[in-house]
What we know:
Blueprint: E1 5-8, H1 10-15, H2 18-34, E2 40-48, E3 51-58, E4 63-70, E5 77-83, E6 87-92
Parallel strand pairs: 1-6
Antiparallel strand pairs: 2-3, 2-5, 3-4, 5-6
Pfam families: DUF960
Protein name: DUF960 domain-containing protein
Organism: Propionigenium maris DSM 9537
Amino acid sequence: MFENKRYMTRGFQQEISLELQLTIFQLIDELKIKSKMDYLQVFELSKEGYIQVLEHRMEEPEYKKIYRFAFTRPVTAKVFVIDDGDHTTVMLAEEY
């Protein structure tokens, strides 16, 4: 799971900075080494001043972890990362 080609929607590419995109992919890559992963990864992004709050969760197995990073342009968004077996798609929740 999450070992195949990755595709990003236009909204994700435009709304989420490259630095934050890479952070999301890094968190997925680190988690897939440590544990079994659900086909759907959810990232809830919020901001506290210049702090980017990133809540990463999945349902099966149940997982939730919150990260805080200093970012120059923190954003508020919900991101879905979906692996259908052939490819991985990253999109904003409103693009689903």
